[in-house]
Amino acid sequence: MGNEAHAGARILIVDDEPQIRKLLKVTLAAHGYVVQEADTGEEGIRQASIFHPDLIVLDLGLPDLTGMEVLMRIRDWSGIPVLVLTAKDREADKITALDAGADDYITKPFGMGELVARIRVALRHSAKSTDEPIIRSGSLTIDLAQRIVELNEERIKLTPTEYDLLKALAAHAGKVVTQRQLLQQVWGNQHDEGDSHYLRIYIGHLRKKLEEDPSQPRFIITEPGVGYRFLTQE
Amino acid sequence: MEKVNIERMPKWLIYVLLTLLISVLTWILGIYAEELEIVNIALIYLFPVLLSAVYGGLFPALFAAGVGVLALDFFFIAPQLSFTVSDLRYLISFGVYLSVAGLTASLADRLKRQAQQARQREAHTASLYAFSRQIGEVSDVSSLLDGVTKQLTQTIGAETSVYLPDSSGTLRRVHASSPDTSRDDERVREEEVLVRMVYEEGQQVGRGSQTLRELPGRYMPLRTEERTYGVLVLRVPADQRNTGNWLTEEQQLLLEALCGLAAAAIARFTLAEEAKLAHLTAESERLRAAILDSVSHELRTPLAAVIGSATGLIENDELFSKEDRMELLETIRSGSMRMNRLVQNLLGMVRLESGMLQLRREWCDIQDLLGVSLAQIQDIRGHRKLRVNLPDELPMVRGDEVLLEQMIDNILGNAIKYSPDGSVIDIEAKVSEDTLVLSIADEGSGLTAGEEQRVFEKFYRSDSTLHVSGTGLGLAICKGIADLHGGEIAIASRTDGKQGAIVWVRLPLPEMPEKRSGQDGE
Q1: Interchain contact, A197 vs B520, CB within 8 Å
Q2: What is the pLDDT of residue A1?
Q3: B94 CB-contact burial (10 Å; exposed 0-12 / middle 13-18 / buried 19+)
């Protein structure tokens, strides 16, 4: 288990539902995290500055401030990883939150395993000071220094765009990357709305080259309506 | 044209023209007097009489007869150029002449009047006929009233307004032939009181009727045999306020006929409306019953499992072995998941039906979405084999990724739910003309004949699959999503020799955007 690495990490939960707070507190404490609760947006912002959390779990549907306001006000002065909790059918909220600096999202109702995995990924990314030159996921190796991609020890030929796309995804391994963020990172500032078409085409190409069965991908999975996630396999 | 001209001529002009005509005739006859017998000349003098009887009426004809006799006597009967008559037998001739002229004139005059009445009646009948055909075609009360008031303005020339009761029974002025600017409060109140009275009693009042004849208007109830539907008000034009006989008998009849027709049409609308409402109420009653039935069953069953397992664990923790405890916890999890699916389906349905859903139109890769769905169903697929058959290059569709994925989820979920463990599910996509066709075939029990449409109805559950839990919402949601994307969804029993059902989804393929040059190269 990798949670020893973050044992003692401080997590702030901002949610107005006592049942959800209780559930999170019990489970996260059991996983060795130090948990603090806030039941309103204002309280959340206050706690964020006095509790010095390593990560914030933020519910987007709060009674006083909207979750988005809390997120922006925290982002004004801090880069603490923020994991947002949303309802299933609020894709627009998810994208807005992610583009506004949230690190990842999780949809209610969620399984505890999924939540803990997301927390771990977010903590790992924030702890990393410099990018590791080599990213590994199962049989896939990406050597960022030499721009070499290997699958089962065999070198895979990628076009420059495909490589950039894979790199952008792998650099945030485990985290969701929105379509806009990908377009921004791969195509730069000149991209427009219509380019999401190419994004999908290149994701398709990448899958054909990397995945055994492109219909059931293992490395690059789609989060419908939001973006893509590069999965790392232990 | 000529007829109209003569009718519109001033009276004196007709007499002048007649005198002229007879003078000319006399002059011409004077030239040929030698050759003509006096009897013929007398007969020729009947012409102006006939002419004036037909075109001018009784009095001009009598005038023509008189002048004719005088001219005949003066110019042709000896002694000429004198009114004296030498032969007294001529007096008998004059008498006969005058009687013939008088009789002809009065006959012609009566014929003319009858023809005129017939024409008028024909015009009224035609307008009634045209109107009744017109109201057969109109589909709402407002355009009907528009037609009625227009017709009345044309034939009677009075301003009309119509009062109908609203839902609370208060009579409201719903239509007027012309916007009224000169209505002071007192007159409005007076009109309203009268309208209420006419509406309640169902009898016409006002000018030209039996009651309250001094009113400056006419109040007609719009009634059929059973009930009164409203009141039509005709206002007497200002220039006719003092004429006693405001409407001709024909106009009266027309007015009554029009009101009858309008009442019948309003009755028709009202009944149709009531029938529709009754149907809607029955339909929503049926839906409510179905929702209650489905939701209460689909919610209570897993709730019972969850509450039972949880209380068991809390109260008798020490009784259970580790395996028992895991099993109870697993029951709690699957029960909650089932409730979660129900809630999601209900919310999805509400969202689709509320019309508030904002459909996002993005490029969607069906292969990609299929991948997401396949990952979603890992937990429930058991040992069923999923065979995916996609072409190398599948064009993208435009739509909402989340909804399309939900649709594929539902179809795949059904295929798994209704087929035995270990069977094969075939998933195929292909391009057919300008649509993308996705088909998912299972090896379950298929459909009962006649169910192909009904399974897309909300809360419909097939009798043959009641042993499988479900809300009857999944396919209704799929249909809603397919419709939103301008696509189609259909289901049938398989016809390829295997047992089972097959679902097709057709989605329109838009034109691809031009590939940007200098983007990337292999």
Answers
A1: no
A2: 42
A3: middle
Q: Is the per-residue pLDDT at B11 higher than 80?
A: no
Q: Answer whether CATH 3.10.180.10 is correct for domain B362-508.
A: no
CB A108 within 8 A of CB A115: no
pLDDT for the residue numbered B522 = 42
| Residue B34 CA: distances (Å) to CA of B28, B31, B41, B80 | 12, 8, 11, 13
Three-state DSSP at B82 gives: coil
Class of domain A134-230: mainly alpha
- Over the stretch A87-117, which tens digit does the pLDDT of each residue have? 766 778 888 899 999 999 998 888 888 899 9
Q: Which of B344, B363, B370 sits opposite A215 (nearest CB)?
A: B370
CB-nearest to A216 from B364, B369, B371 is B371
Looking at the complex, report in whole angstroms how far the Cα of residue A185 sits from the nearest Cα belonging to chain B.
15
Tell me which CATH homologous superfamily contains domain A3-127.
Response regulator (3.40.50.2300)
Domain residue limits, chain B: 2-131, 139-272, 362-508
Cα(A171)–Cα(A133) distance, rounded to whole angstroms? 10
**To the nearest whole number, what is the mean pLDDT of chain B?**
83
Between chains, do B396 and A197 touch, taking CB under 8 Å as contact? yes
pLDDT score of A12: 95
Using 50, 70 and 90 to split pLDDT, how confident is the model at A234?
A: low
Q: Which of B503, B330, B348 is nearest to B418 (CA)?
A: B503
Interface-testing mutation among A197, A213, A220, with chain B (most B C-beta atoms within 10 A):
A197
Residues in A closer than 8 angstroms to B512, CB to CB, are 197
Task: Give me the CATH code for the B139-272 domain, please.
Answer: 3.30.450.40
pLDDT, mean of residues B244-255? 74
B360 touches A at CB < 8 Å: yes
Residue spans per domain, chain A: 3-127, 134-230
Q: Is B406 exposed, middle or buried (0-12, 13-18, 19+ CB in 10 A)?
A: buried
Longest dimension (CA), chain A: 55
- pLDDT tens digits along A42-54: 999 999 999 999 9
pLDDT of residue A225: 86
